[in-house]
């Protein structure tokens, strides 16, 4: 096993050279400022690389990732990212993105004990408990992905209820919150259609999106 990770350094140099050849002056322009229009709040899973999935270059997507794409009001890390993105970078869209077959969601569903992260996954278990009766009525093989989607809806709603987003809406700033899910099996993103651009639209958007999820799994 390499102790120097030279292969990664070599790959970085190759990428930088190819990027500069393809777009001369790219890095010097990037150095001056970043002006992303999107904040991506996603899972830390290595199979879900945010920029690559939407084919955006560095500087075009502001990213926060954690286990199971959780947004909670006590997480100062996530809230600080949101605050900087909204207040300083003026992003126009916040996208909470989950993915199919999420290991964190699976652990929360199965009550698996995996270590310190169990405490973090209590937030996902709260989502499970909220929808327990409906989840119990699904075939066992569908429950993980169903909970992945339910978790996106709940975390997107949480994002809408943060002081960061609420304050932006009060002052008339354009910020739209979305909830998406990524399919590991096909590489495609799906809009779960929980889309809110003001406080009054949050609960109706959540209810409609929840009904769509449940209707889809009914077939």
Automatic annotation (TrEMBL):
Keyword Flavoprotein attached: no
Note on cofactor: Binds 1 zinc ion per subunit.
Alphabetical list of InterPro entries matching this protein: Carbonic_anhydrase, Carbonic_anhydrase_CS, Carbonic_anhydrase_sf
Binding residues for Zn(2+): 43, 45, 99, 102
Pfam family, one: Pro_CA
Superkingdom: Bacteria
Catalysed reactions listed for this entry: hydrogencarbonate + H(+) = CO2 + H2O
PROSITE patterns hit by this protein: PROK_CO2_ANHYDRASE_1, PROK_CO2_ANHYDRASE_2
Residues spanning the signal sequence: none
GO molecular function, one term: zinc ion binding
Keyword Zinc (UniProt): yes
UniProt-listed Enzyme Commission number(s): 4.2.1.1
Alphabetically ordered keywords of this record: Lyase, Metal-binding, Zinc
GO biological process: carbon utilization
Necessary cofactors: Zn(2+)
Function summary: Reversible hydration of carbon dioxide.
Family per similarity comment: Belongs to the beta-class carbonic anhydrase family.
Name of this protein: Carbonic anhydrase
